[in-house]
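In response to the reviewer comment on reproducibility (Comment 2.3), we provide here a single inverse folding case reported in full, input and output, so that an independent group could reproduce the run without further information from us. The structure tokens appear first.
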């Protein structure tokens, strides 16, 4: 019952936002960076038994040999704290049907909410690092932290890929100004 009430409350807060309706337009460099929508992934991490899941769309492959992947996370976020402490994370490539879970995880903090319980996202154990990973994804990259670069209000966390799998060819989700879509063509 409590879970349902929390979910309902979050859902009303999580309606996709359009820049024209909420505050000033995004800075020019963000508009340029989002000329095309960015793919949304869910990051999972754990430290001392505390587990978290949250979406990001600032992520990038950085090297083939060694295999490196970068994620930019808000430096004050709970997720950043967990990764700094554990030195491990998983990048989970999620199917388009997970939009609601993505907004739930992206607009609450794991400091206050057990996002796995609220969303019903299914966890499995990562094989090569001490972290949960998500079941039923399109694929995943398990990463050991190689380098942490403080870039400003975000932290660039560079992970060495220790295990990966590609699971399916379904469309992934992309993000533009608070909206999600499976194809670029649906964005204004
Ligand atoms: C579609 C979407 C994309 C996001 N992209 C990023 C991102 O690239 N980096 C980031 O730090 N936060 C991003 N966020 C915000 C975080 O997911 C959000 O701050 C989240 O509440 C952090 O959770 P935590 O406090 O449990 O770590 C995004 C949110 C959404 C909904």
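Designed residues, in position order:
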């Amino acid at each position: 019952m409590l879970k349902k009430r929390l979910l309902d409350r979050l859902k009303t807060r999580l309606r996709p936002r359009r820049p024209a309706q909420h505050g000033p337009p995004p800075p020019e460099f963000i508009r340029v960076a989002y000329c095309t929508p960015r793919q949304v992934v869910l990051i999972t991490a754990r430290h001392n038994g505390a587990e978290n899941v949250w979406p990001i769309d600032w992520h990038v492959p950085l090297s083939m040999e060694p295999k490196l992947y970068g994620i930019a996370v808000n430096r004050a976020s709970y997720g950043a704290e967990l990764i700094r402490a554990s030195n491990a994370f998983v990048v989970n490539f999620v199917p388009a049907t997970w939009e609601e879970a993505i907004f739930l995880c992206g607009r609450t903090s794991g400091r206050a909410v057990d996002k796995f319980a609220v969303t019903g996202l299914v966890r499995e154990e990562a094989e090569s690092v001490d972290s949960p990973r998500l079941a039923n994804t399109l694929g995943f990259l398990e990463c050991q932290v190689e380098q942490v670069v403080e870039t400003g209000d975000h932290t660039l966390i560079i992970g060495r890929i220790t295990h990966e799998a590609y699971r399916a060819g379904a469309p992934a989700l992309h993000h533009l100004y608070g909206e999600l879509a499976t194809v670029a063509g649906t964005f204004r």
